[in-house]
């Protein structure tokens, strides 16, 4: 009674910020409540180790959190059974708390996210509208690719190093117990060399390839219409009576 | 003695007397039919009246909304997003094709492979099949209970008065009546079965036990104002069989047991439940397990088999889902009860949510809160279908048989048939499920990688 007035202002703000429609926002809000257990935020619970690590440099923080976060943090996303089947589950969950995706800081992880942050992350997967012009399309594409880049680049240094690349490949292949670490490594190394050849061209024998920067990343994805594929389509809502 | 009382307490006395008379009459009108298993049709009349009122209320809201230009009809979805049905292989091939100019027959790891899993992960975070089964179903029309409609808005004075009246009736009239009935029912059950327990074993004892049980369950049914329609009663479970049904709330037991005489299976609790359980088992053999015995699946199976093989014993009532589901779907049936080898009598129970939501969300409400909610709803309306008996075929294993029974129940009740385990409400996915998708992907990469290195 009367609460809908103030809600629509917030909703309007969110609509302009994230680009979702007000109905979609309401649906996502209900989903957010489900995931957070009716709390205002979704959080990660960390061990003593990572908490201490946040006091140190961001490099150390990210490294230790990589080890302990993935295995000991109990998160609200654990309640989704379908997500368990996904090999890069921990990377996806991490992406939700990544400060770069939340546009809050150039590195680090947030402890908890509220509904607005949730929507910000979701907006990376918004479908493209047909009325976008060239510039908007380009911007959209860049944002989506940046999201994927952040998934690879876990230490936020702006480059995907060999180590990080190997990490992703190992995780993707982690479900199969028959693949040894060695073969996963060699696959990653091979793929990395290919990527290097695309970006830098022929390398001198003593040249060290430092890693894939974001521009190189963009080059690799050239030609792939990621913006038309990287979205989650909302169902067409049929109107049936729901008393308001 | 009247002269000794002051004037204003005369009014109070009259009020008290009239209330007592009213209550006694009502109890007589309700308990006596329960004992004999007849019905005056009062509840059906009540249901029809309520429906008329709901229809009127909805009309008023439509009119009111049009006047004020509110949006009354809200988009309704059964899920938020459209999930892509393409498989892992197809999608990855498609992405690679559109990207590199290399030949398609040299698959190896590509930077873009991460994309498929990323998107799938996002989709499940936005909406997944399982989690939404564990929250109560949202209604499409308003039934004058503000608990089923989260956005109650002021539409008109008449409607608010109606709602207020509804609250008054439900909490001040129906609730005390129902509590009184429930109390009567439960105490009669305990006292009756204990007394029957003292009788010598024989046909008279069985007869009395059956009727005491039925009478008390019928009183409890009236205590909840449950309006039940039974279909296909000729398929009712017989001795030596197992009755399986889908589980929505603890009330399921009362609903089924008021129409048939069953042996219950379960864990012994403490407190009031324990008292009831111990009394019941004196009159006829139910199968109660100690807490420690519940974990031992072998022991459980043994005792059930023993019970089932004795043809003089009653059919067992089991809920194979293991937990309460919100009555929009049927989840995985645990295979334990299907391994025993007895005839299975499936039963489908479907509640009509318009009169009151019967789903017990045990993480949200405790038992007492739940019962109070039930007793302050308008009514519990449900349909029960007795399906024809099924037996396990010669070359069928228990899991397959369980799924067959589950599909039959889902089809009859109009529920969605899911493969997921109801235990996921509390536990995590088993590792065996996790590995499949990952194996498929790694086969794609590594299998081909081996081919390449060989050539």
Automatic annotation (TrEMBL), chain A:
User: Its Gene Ontology biological processes?
Assistant: cell differentiation
Localisation per UniProt entry: Cell projection, Lamellipodium; Cell projection, Ruffle membrane; Cytoplasm; Membrane
Annotated membrane topology is: Lipid-anchor
Give a yes or no for keyword Acyltransferase in this entry.
Answer: no
Under Gene Ontology molecular function, one entry of this record is: calcium ion binding
Q: Where is the EF-hand domain?
A: 140-175
- What InterPro entries does its record include? CHP3, EF-hand-dom_pair, EF_Hand_1_Ca_BS, EF_hand_dom
Query: Would you say which domain of life the source belongs to?
Result: Eukaryota
Q: What is its main location?
A: other
* Any coiled-coil regions, as ranges: none
Can the keyword Nucleus be found in this entry's annotation?
yes
Quote a single Gene Ontology cellular component term. cytoplasm
Entry-linked SUPFAM superfamilies = EF-hand
Task: Give the record's keywords alphabetically.
Answer: Calcium, Cell membrane, Cell projection, Cytoplasm, Differentiation, Lipoprotein, Membrane, Metal-binding, Myristate, Nucleus, Protein kinase inhibitor
Which PANTHER family would you find in this protein's record?
CALCINEURIN B HOMOLOGOUS PROTEIN 3
The UniProt entry's sequence similarity note says: Belongs to the calcineurin regulatory subunit family. CHP subfamily.
Would you tell me the protein name for this molecule? Calcineurin B homologous protein 3
TrEMBL record, chain B:
Q: Which GO terms describe its molecular function?
A: glycerol-3-phosphate O-acyltransferase activity
Q: Which coarse location class applies to the principal site listed for this UniProt protein?
A: membrane
Listed GO biological process terms: acyl-CoA metabolic process; diacylglycerol metabolic process; fatty acid metabolic process; glandular epithelial cell maturation; lactation; phosphatidylcholine biosynthetic process; regulation of multicellular organism growth; triglyceride biosynthetic process
Phospholipid/glycerol acyltransferase domain boundaries:
241-352
Say which domain of life the source belongs to.
Answer: Eukaryota
The subcellular localization recorded is: Membrane
Q: In which pathway does it act?
A: Lipid metabolism; Phospholipid metabolism
Pfam families reported in the protein's UniProt record: Acyltransferase
Instruction: Give the GO cellular component terms, alphabetically.
Output: endoplasmic reticulum; membrane
Keywords carried by this UniProt record: Acyltransferase, Lipid biosynthesis, Lipid metabolism, Membrane, Phospholipid biosynthesis, Phospholipid metabolism, Transferase, Transmembrane, Transmembrane helix
**What start and end residues bound the annotated signal peptide?**
none
Transmembrane spans: 12-42, 155-173, 179-200
Family listed: Belongs to the 1-acyl-sn-glycerol-3-phosphate acyltransferase family.
Query: What is the protein's given name?
Result: Glycerol-3-phosphate acyltransferase 4
Q: Which organism is it from?
A: Sarcophilus harrisii
Gene that this polypeptide is encoded by = GPAT4
């Amino acid at each position: 009674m009367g609460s809908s007035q103030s809600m629509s202002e917030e909703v309007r703000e969110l609509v302009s910020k994230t680009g979702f429609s007000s109905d979609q926002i309401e649906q996502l809000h209900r989903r957010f409540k489900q995931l957070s257990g009716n709390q205002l935020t979704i959080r990660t619970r960390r061990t003593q180790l990572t908490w201490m690590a946040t006091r140190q440099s961001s490099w150390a923080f990210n490294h230790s959190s990589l080890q302990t976060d993935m295995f000991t943090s109990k998160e609200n996303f654990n309640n989704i059974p379908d997500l368990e089947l996904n090999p890069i589950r921990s990377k996806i969950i991490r992406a939700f708390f990544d400060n770069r995706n939340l546009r809050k800081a150039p590195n680090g992880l947030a402890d908890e996210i509220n509904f607005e942050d949730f929507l910000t992350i979701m907006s990376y997967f918004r479908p493209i509208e047909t009325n976008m012009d060239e510039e908007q399309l380009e911007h959209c594409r860049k944002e989506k690719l940046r999201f994927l880049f952040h998934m690879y680049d876990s230490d936020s240094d702006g480059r995907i190093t060999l180590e990080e690349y190997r990490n992703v490949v190992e995780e993707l292949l982690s479900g199969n117990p028959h693949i040894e670490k060695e073969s996963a490594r060699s696959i990653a190394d091979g793929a990395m060399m290919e990527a290097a050849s695309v970006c830098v061209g022929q390398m001198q024998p003593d040249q060290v390839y430092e890693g894939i920067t974001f521009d190189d990343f963009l080059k690799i994805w050239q030609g792939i219409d990621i913006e038309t594929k990287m979205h989650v389509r909302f169902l067409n809502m049929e109107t049936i009576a729901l008393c308001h | 003695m009247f002269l000794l009382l002051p004037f204003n307490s005369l009014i109070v006395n009259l009020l008290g007397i009239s209330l007592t008379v009213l209550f006694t009459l009502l109890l007589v009108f309700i308990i006596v039919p329960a004992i004999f298993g007849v019905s005056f049709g009062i509840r059906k009349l009540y249901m029809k009246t309520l429906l008329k009122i709901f229809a009127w209320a909805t009309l008023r809201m439509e009119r009111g909304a049009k006047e004020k230009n509110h949006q009354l009809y809200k988009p309704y979805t059964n899920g938020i997003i459209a999930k892509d049905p393409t498989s892992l292989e197809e999608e990855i091939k498609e992405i690679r094709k559109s990207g590199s100019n290399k030949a398609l027959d040299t698959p190896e790891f590509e930077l873009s492979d991460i994309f498929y899993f990323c998107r799938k992960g996002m989709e499940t975070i936005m909406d997944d099949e399982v989690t939404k089964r564990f929250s109560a179903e949202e209604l499409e029309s308003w039934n004058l209970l503000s608990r089923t409609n989260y956005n109650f808005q002021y539409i008109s004075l008449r409607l608010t008065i109606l709602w207020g009246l509804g609250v008054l009736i439900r909490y001040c009239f129906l609730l005390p009546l129902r509590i009184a009935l429930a109390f009567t029912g439960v105490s009669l059950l305990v006292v009756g079965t204990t007394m029957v327990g003292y009788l010598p074993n024989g046909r008279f004892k069985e007869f009395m036990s059956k009727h005491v049980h039925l009478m008390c369950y019928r009183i409890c049914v009236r205590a909840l104002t449950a309006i039940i329609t039974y279909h296909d009663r000729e398929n009712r479970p017989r001795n030596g069989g197992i009755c399986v049904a889908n589980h929505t709330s603890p009330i399921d037991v009362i609903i089924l047991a008021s129409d048939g005489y069953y042996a219950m299976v379960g864990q012994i609790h403490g407190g009031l439940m324990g008292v009831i359980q111990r009394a019941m088992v004196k009159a006829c053999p139910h199968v109660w397990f100690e807490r420690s015995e519940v974990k031992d699946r072998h022991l459980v199976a043994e005792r059930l088999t023993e019970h089932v093989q004795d043809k003089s014993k009653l059919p067992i009532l089991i809920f194979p889902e293991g937990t309460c589901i919100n009555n929009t779907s049927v989840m995985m049936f645990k295979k334990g009860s299907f391994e025993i080898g007895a005839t299975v009598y499936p039963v489908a129970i479907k509640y009509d949510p318009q009169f009151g939501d019967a789903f017990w969300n045990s993480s949200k409400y405790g038992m007492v809160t739940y019962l109070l909610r039930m007793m302050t709803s308008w009514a519990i309306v449900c349909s029960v279908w007795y399906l024809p008996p099924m037996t396990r075929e010669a070359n069928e294993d228990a899991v397959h048989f369980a799924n067959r029974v589950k599909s039959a129940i889902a089809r009859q009740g109009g529920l969605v048939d899911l493969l997921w385990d109801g235990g996921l409400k509390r536990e995590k996915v088993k590792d065996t499920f996790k590995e499949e998708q990952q194996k498929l992907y790694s086969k794609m990469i590594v299998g081909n990688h081996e081919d390449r290195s060989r050539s």
